Amino acid sequence: MNKNNNTRCTNCLLSSSCMYTRSCLVTDAELKNPEFVRDVRNFACAMGLQPSDWKPFLTDELEAYPGKIINRHYQEVELNLELFELDDETILHSDSKTLANANDNVCEWFETWCCTPCPDGKRSRLNEETKEKFRIVATILRARNPGAAQFWGLKGKAANDNNPQD
Questions:
Q1: Distances from the Cα of 122 to the Cαs of 24, 28, 38, 61, 131, in angstroms?
Q2: Number of domains in the chain
C-alpha cells in the first residue's frame, strides 16, 4: 500500500494483496480479559461450524491469509496448529479406541470453546491447557476478520454494532 495517498502500489496490484499486511498475535493480556475471550467465543460460534470442521477451517484460513502474524516486537511468528493434532506417541502406542477418544477430546475442545456461545455476564477464563489453543484460534480469526475483531474485549462497543457476518 502506498502510504502517501492510500492507493495500492504496483506490487500490491500484481499480487492482489499487500505484502505489508500484518496481524498481531493475541497477547497474554487479551487472553486474561474475560470480555475478549467471550467475544471471540461468540464470534466463533456465530460462524456455525461443527467441531470436526474447525481444524481444517483454521488451516485453510491461515494458508489463505496474505499477510504475516507478528508478535509485540514486530517479529513474524508461526502458529503451531499441531496443538490440535494427536501426538506421535498417542498414534504409535494406542489402540483404535484410545485414538478415537483422543480425537474426540480435540472435537470436545472445539465444541466448548468455538461452538458454544458464552452469554453476556458470564466470565470466561482460560486455563493453561486451553490458553495456547485459544490464542491460535483468536489470532487466526482476528487476522481474517479485522473489522469484527477491533471490538473484541471492549466494554463500550461502537454505536452501530453491526455484525460483519450478516
A1: 26, 20, 8, 29, 18
A2: 1
Residue 82 lies in a domain: yes
3-state helix, strand, coil in the chain (%, to 5): 50, 5, 40
In a domain, 154, yes or no: no
Counting residues of the chain whose pLDDT is more than 70, the rounded percentage is 70
pLDDT at 156: 59
Q: Which three cell numbers stand for residue 74?
A: 514486530
Look up the domain containing 95 and give its range: 20-149
Residue 154 CA from chain centroid, whole number: 17
Classify residue 165: in a domain, yes or no. Answer: no
Whether residue 140 contacts residue 62, with contact meaning beta carbons closer than 8 Å, is answered with yes
Amino acid sitting at position 44:
A
CB atoms near residue 47 (< 10 Å): 14
Kindly report the length of the chain.
Answer: 166
40: closest CA among 159, 127, 144? 144
- What does the CA dihedral 70, 36, 161, 58 come to, rounded to 10 degrees? 50
**Mean pLDDT of the region 62-91:** 82
The pTM (predicted TM-score) of the whole model is 0.77
Q: Which amino acid is at 102?
A: A
Q: Is residue 33 part of a domain?
A: yes
